[in-house]
Design brief:
alpha/beta; Glutaredoxin; 5-stranded mixed beta sheet; 14 helices
Length: about 325
């Protein structure tokens, strides 16, 4: 539990909630129900062993924060995840109801363990220790096989390091999901490109060999697709998309729309990841509490590139 003021709100609530959910308790010293709710919240925080963090805000002393969250009565609790409010409740709930509220949103113990391993893996990747990062992701997936974020990161790392057979095995459970997540379809298309390069003689061609055939027949879509897959295998993503656009421009439905599916897969692979646990929108919680404020999103160059190629695809399809 930590007392929060306007001075440390950004660090202790917004920043902290990017990795661990934060439950804000708006209270006041004169509030009777607050006195009964506060100890229960602290007890539950201990029982949940780090699955969330409790932040207490004196609404009398921190009226700016109370106003920002639209607090009309106390006690009011608001759960922050990914830097944004996702739900809340008013009044002094009993312990069982508090746990019921939290369990709707908080990750389970296995998920927490898996996320911890995944965070360590990310740090290891940034330090250049790829093998240790791979081991950590494997441990995380074993702890929480239903964690799609971990599975995606693990398979992506396997593909990126050329371990195609293990990647296929790790990806397989995700491919039977209904509906199939676009990010896993993207990994499948990436695998197809790498398998093509390793099994088809054209996988060893130079770009000049492809271009010579295409110059003879601009509708030689099979050659264009083969070239795009070679470009994908070498990480030449924008060049691959440009080649795929040439096919889509001339025949949107060719090859059971494989060029379009491959193009969309590349866009997905290039899209910067969203912050973990970031909710989709603000507004009102299930409890009807008004959640004020807007997130400021700055588009980075990678996101701008993806947006540009999304527009190009849209123009070709419409």
């Amino acid at each position: 539990m930590i007392d929060v003021t306007i001075a440390n709100f950004e660090q202790e609530v917004i920043a902290a909630s990017m990795t661990t959910p934060v439950l804000i308790d708006f209270w006041a010293p004169w509030c009777g129900p607050c006195k009964s709710l506060g100890p229960l919240l602290e007890k539950v925080e201990v029982a949940y062993s780090g699955r969330f963090k409790l932040a207490k805000i004196d609404s009398d002393q921190e009226q700016q924060l109370s106003s920002a969250f639209g607090i009309k009565s106390i006690p009011t609790c608001i759960l922050m995840m990914g830097g944004r409010p996702v739900d809340g409740f008013t009044g002094a709930l009993p312990e069982g109801k508090i746990k019921e509220f939290l369990d709707k949103h908080l990750p389970g113990e296995n998920e927490v363990l898996a996320q911890s391993e995944a965070n360590e893996a990310q740090a290891l990747l940034e330090s250049g220790d790829v093998q240790s990062a791979q081991d950590k992701l494997a441990e995380a997936l074993a702890a929480d096989p239903a964690n799609d974020d971990v599975r995606f990161d693990y398979v992506k790392l396997l593909i990126g390091t050329g371990q195609l057979v293990p990647a296929q095995s790790a990806l397989a459970p995700a491919l039977v999901q209904i509906p199939l997540q676009l990010r896993f379809e993207a990994l499948r298309q990436w695998l197809k490109a790498l398998e093509f390069v390793s099994t088809d003689p054209r996988g060893q061609w130079s770009y000049e060999q492809f271009d010579a055939l295409i110059a003879q027949n601009k509708r030689d879509f099979d050659t264009r697709l083969a070239k795009a897959r070679v470009l994908m295998s070498e990480g030449e993503w924008t060049a691959a998309m440009d080649e795929l656009l040439e096919i889509i421009m001339r025949d949107k439905l060719w090859g059971e729309e494989t060029p379009r599916k491959t193009f969309v897969a590349i866009l997905e692979l290039l899209t910067p990841p969203r912050p973990k646990n970031a909710p989709g929108a603000t507004g009102k919680t299930a409890a009807g509490i008004e959640l004020l404020g807007k997130a400021v999103v700055q588009e980075d160059p990678q996101a701008a590139l993806v947006s540009s190629y999304r527009r190009k695809l849209s123009m070709m399809l419409n």
